[in-house]
Design goal:
The chain has no helices and 7 strands. By secondary structure, it is mainly beta. The radius of gyration is 16 Å and the shape is globular. 16% of the residues are buried.
């Protein structure tokens, strides 16, 4: 089994209207084989394309379960801010995604690698 892999990203809202921001993903293959923890926080000292987590400090957990249960629509999406708080212009939140493989109850029984397939994570803002 592989150990956890973490990646961090800063999301900044540039709209002018206070909005609800939700996080969701496209459909994920083999999601039950992977556990994902998504934490909200702050403090990334060098948010960059390499998605390093230097300086990240977690404040709340948005998701902590297998990938097959991750929301796939805006309506079902995870709140961008804890408690669904509205985002104002220039607000930013740092996120840490930590993924690891779920323990397999039949070790050495599989002969091919398992992956999640291509998928994306989307932050979408809507103002009602």
């Amino acid at each position: 089994a592989n150990g956890p892999t973490a990646a961090c990203i800063r999301v900044t809202y540039s709209g002018s209207l206070a909005s609800a921001v939700k996080l969701y993903s496209s459909a994920i293959t083999n999601g039950s084989n992977f556990h994902l923890k998504v934490e909200r926080g702050s403090g990334l000292s060098a948010p960059a394309a390499n998605m390093n987590c230097t300086g990240f400090s977690a404040s709340t957990t948005a998701f902590d379960a297998t990938l097959d249960t991750f929301p796939t629509t805006y309506a079902a999406g995870l709140d961008g801010k804890a408690g669904g708080a509205a985002w104002s212009s220039s607000d930013s939140i740092d996120y840490r995604f930590t993924i690891y493989t779920v323990d397999d109850s039949t070790p050495n029984a599989h002969t091919t690698a398992v992956d999640t397939g291509a998928h994306s994570f989307t932050w979408e803002a809507q103002n009602n």
